[in-house]
């Protein structure tokens, strides 16, 4: 789907970037000649100083300083590693080459995206649920559209998030001014509703004990837990939203990883078009993490309390704050949705799913309880009673494997680690061997 | 730089797009089965219903219905028309092709942009003013970075805009909540400071009569007036900002169109690094309107009133709300900054400048007073005492030329038309002939 904050794929680059160093590891204040009179945005002050991934980078960096010859395997960041099918890249290359010809040159496209691509998205992913191409907004990635959705919603709405969850929902809520203050003791923002999702509730919140909010961020298959919500769970969620008048922001960026009959879209649930938008992405589906392409569906049925259609305001935000995804990336996206392209990208998805199986098998052989991995490229590993940073450190120290401590995804992630299944096969096999050696 | 709102380059597509039709030409409300309880964002309610470009599209559409054989020339939207140099497109094509190989595959890049590209931007555009690559943030275009800057600044700051100006500054101020209510009589938002810029003040505001604000949006060379601020004017602006503790958001997206000795960057003015950020773009410089690439410079010297460096918060916003520009576009941007690439894109800039000269010559021969065009791809034409929509309609009706009525850029644009110099040479020559026939 999208990356977690900062300092991930180009760790070493960022570690030596002063801009990043300062932000991540404490600000060095020097008295300047001139300060402006502009107050710092109080919302940005509410974000905690240290974020997850810079902290991981720092520990990785320290580890490499102590062990310069360590052969690290990075299963931390969820970044794709396998090449994109030829048919997709050659379509992008052809489009790019065409820009140097009079016939092939293209300037501004529609902010909402190329109509042909919107049609292909509607037909490929929403054929049976009647999403129209006019309801599809092509984006440069799901993370960017979360921010634009926050601009749409504004500071006055209340929001609920799964706990644990991808930090982007919470951080953008904080930046737009919805979240209130951080309670440093609980690690929770006062105005946000945290919906605990763990093995004890089949990774689905107890809705009878969930406060009603204007917005509900819900990710399935979930990052980080790897859980794909069942049809029954999503039916409950849609009913809950309808009863309370909420809008669900449904994140389906990992939907193509679903193997069982879990819904691939919230719109498979009857009535969902009146209560939900869906954000999604080519990143993990087609290896487009660097190419940047995604989409959001805003059904025309979805209305604010005054009856005004949400789609019109989202269109206005997209037209004012965005200028469309790169036309080269859009040409690639269209190629991914051709039958040959789709076949090609499916093989990559299956490759990562086999990786996940290798990791799950290794953990099962060690009697370590792990979740996810069946319908998602993430394995969510339980270390009962343990601090997730301690487990992270131990695995880094003893097995030279980078993972992500679960507490980085919210207080509900404590005692867990997220292990990413993105990687070349040999790295995954080697990681499995090392885990077995460490824990057996 | 960037496009004006909506419905521009793909007029016909959008005209028949129900999503756009509804938004642009009045909402058709039908009672739905279910409204959510989520209030519509009050900021979005403050934006006027009809925007400039949909209105232009509508009039164009009506004109074509009445005159189906009319040979329209579009000098409305500022969209590039000339192909991109081979060296740039082949670099993008090679990068795209490489993504299908193990060696060439790239996943997530740094959110702030490829370091090599940041270096090249710093060296090409800011060599003599000591901007470091760590202060350059690569973006997917200036319009997108304006929105991210608004997320950085938040709703509590006060802002000033040039009048007339590109609508993006005002519209994003409204969306984030800075602007207050629209006074329908004056066409101005209550909380915004409008800095009138016209021939009477050499297109530079009378700063003695300008209220102090936290933020000052300033575009030079200006869209729509085509005026490049002189060194003396910018020195005044920087002093004004420093005296008042303001931050200047300087938009230099048309800087490569400057022919005379006007500053190409606000950072040419001593002390500007303590009071300004600069947004810019490859769009009009390299014909990347559809490829999507730009940058923003946030100097490390620039601080909020509490001494906190603005660059750290901008970094946080970029990392949370953006995931980097497309890596293919970034490869193209780097090629533009090679010596051969730069030479190539310069020839396109010069081509559009010759177009502007043709238009200026035609208007001069008619004794119609026109401004701009020397340092910018826009000609700003004065029709004293006339309503700019009436002039627009007359030129559309009688010469089949689409322009932009100046009032669309703010009340200060009344009596003016903006004519874009982007277009193939034969269209520009034909437009000049038609204008001569119409007005002589």
From TrEMBL, chains A, B:
Segments forming domain Aminotransferase class I/classII large: 72-435
Entry keyword set: Aminotransferase, Pyridoxal phosphate, Transferase
Entry's family note: Belongs to the class-I pyridoxal-phosphate-dependent aminotransferase family. LL-diaminopimelate aminotransferase subfamily.
NCBIfam families the UniProt entry points to: DAPAT_plant
A Pfam short name: Aminotran_1_2
InterPro entries reported in the protein's UniProt record: Aminotransferase_I/II_large, DapL/ALD1, PyrdxlP-dep_Trfase, PyrdxlP-dep_Trfase_major, PyrdxlP-dep_Trfase_small
Cofactors that this protein relies on: pyridoxal 5'-phosphate
Full protein name: Aminotransferase class I/classII large domain-containing protein
SUPFAM superfamilies recorded: PLP-dependent transferases
Gene Ontology terms describing biological process: systemic acquired resistance, salicylic acid mediated signaling pathway
Xref: CDD domains: AAT_like
